Amino acid sequence: MPDIEPFKYNDDDGLAVQEAKPKLKRPPLYKVILLNDDFTPMDFVIEILMDFFSMPEEKATQVMLQIHTQGVGVCGTYSKDVAETKVYIVNDYSRENQHPLMCSMEEV
Ligand code: TYC
Questions:
Q1: Taking 80 as the threshold, does the pLDDT of residue 66 lie above it?
Q2: Which atom of ligand 1 is nearest to the CA of 68?
């Protein structure tokens, strides 16, 4: 090995260029939540959890009772557009049936 590196020609005009690091961030996820109220029938909430969130009846009953006692509960976690669609269809279906049930979403 020589002590002194031989001069090597390059074509960069003395500029060092930093390669762009690809910034790959996972898209945020959203919890779809149901809020308790005093008027929506328990059976209607169970039906929502089974039909729009694919829960078996037992799980839907547990989640409904949790919302009933704690005030709020999570129906599922989704990408932003899927969560927005779930919130829209649940609120629309509740209004159609004259229930005040409120569905909403929050970032995980
Ligand atoms: N609190 C309602 C009742 O006593 C039941 C209920 C549960 C309502 C969950 C909304 O998100 C809800 N009939």
A1: yes
A2: 7
